[in-house]
Write a structure and sequence with these properties.
The chain is mostly helical and 190 residues long. The chain has one domain: Hypothetical Protein Ta1238, Chain: A. Helices cover 53% and strands 5% of the residues. The protein has five helices and four strands; from the N terminus they run E-E-H-H-H-E-H-H-E. The strands form two sheets. Strands 1-2 form a two-stranded antiparallel ribbon. The N and C termini lie far apart (62 Å).
Length: 190
């Protein structure tokens, strides 16, 4: 269990931070950036929850925020040291089930949509973009020879599926897609 008696330790004053396995790395390390983006995503979801989101979405997002702490822990403890913290396919499957539940009543898209419509939909789009950034950070980390075998691939799958869910929920919160703002290619060309 986590216990925080002091909020500041001065341990990061020189630009370093500790990973969950005790290793000290620069605060700009790709791994730190990845779990930082995951933390930012959780904060955006917190804004959505605080915006008066109705059930079942409120509960769904709070459960996902908890999942994101697991994702962050998984990223913070590299390699074998983090085996007990691993995100599993069950996490991703829960997201797929939510996507299927929410996407079924939506009309298929015939155009790309612009972020916007209702305020909650716009927040979902911001969360989706933040999730994609975290996904890119994890993907870049996987491309590093020193990190390739120390990153749980299920984290990448989870974030990819989560961004899909956030897109679907943006449409749901745009009146089941009726208030989606459609892209009009070349609208201002002439």
């Amino acid at each position: 269990m986590v216990r925080l008696d002091r909020i500041y330790t001065r341990g990061g004053d020189e630009g370093l931070t500790s990973l969950g396995d005790g290793a000290r790395v620069p605060k700009h390390d790709r791994r730190v950036a990845a779990y930082g983006d995951v933390d930012e995503l959780s904060s955006v979801l917190g804004l959505l929850v605080a915006s008066g989101l109705d059930e079942p979405y409120r509960g769904d997002l709070q459960a996902i925020q908890n999942d994101l702490f697991d994702v962050g822990a998984d990223l913070c403890v590299p390699g074998e040291a983090g085996e007990r913290l691993r995100i599993t396919p069950a996490y991703t499957k829960r997201l797929e089930d939510l996507i299927d539940r929410e996407n079924a009543p939506l009309e298929p898209l015939r155009s790309f949509i612009l972020p916007g419509g209702t305020q909650q939909s716009a927040w979902f789009h911001l969360a989706r973009c933040t999730c994609r950034r975290a996904e890119r950070q994890v993907s870049e980390m996987l491309a590093l020879p020193s990190e390739k075998d120390r990153v749980n691939l299920e984290v990448l799958r989870y974030l990819n599926r989560l961004s899909d869910l956030l897109f679907v929920l943006a449409r749901v919160h745009n009146g089941q897609g009726r208030q989606d703002v459609l892209w009009k290619p070349g609208q201002r060309q002439g």
